[in-house]
Specification:
This protein is an alpha/beta fold. The protein has one domain: Rossmann fold (3-Layer(aba) Sandwich). Helices cover 31% and strands 17% of the residues. It is built from four helices and seven strands; from the N terminus they run E-E-E-H-E-H-E-H-E-H-E. Strands 5-4-1-6-7 form a five-stranded parallel β-sheet, with helices on both faces. It has a two-stranded antiparallel sheet with strand order 2-3. Strand 6, helix 4 and strand 7 form a beta-alpha-beta unit. Helix 3 crosses helix 4. The radius of gyration is 16 Å and the shape is globular. It starts with a strand and ends in an 8-residue tail after the last strand.
Amino acid sequence: MNIVVLVKQVPDTYSERKLSGSDGTLDRDASDAVLDEINERAVEAALQLKEAHDGSGVDSVVTVVTMGPDRASDAIRKALSMGADKAVHLSDTALRGSDAVATAKALAKVVGTVEFDLVIGGERGVGRACCGGAGDGGRRARSARSHACPGDHPGRFVGDGAPGDR
């Protein structure tokens, strides 16, 4: 079973956060960053699924996918230290400050390059929990993927509480 987990690095809740004066986006260098707590739970859930399938004759692989600046590799390292097998890091200055829809489309494209049976994405990250649902990357990536590539992949997106997800 090939499991993909969407992860995000977010500002540590307990660190000071500042906005960049030039464009009003978060000044990531001014605050400590951590792997999003909800995404950390998603990695753990994927690892539990992997463990449950071990010994069934099917090799399971957990791949984490993130989008962000070079510093987001810290979130990848955390997921790999937890036991994830592989990682994909989408980092492009052209994506800096992307809104939720652009982020979802970019993540959906990346996920489309990875063979998967299951994609796990949290309902929303703590980095956007107060922003009108803009942090619901799992659902948005699923939506972007299904609109861009209907029916071309047997994998499922789960974990965001959408109807039909189990």
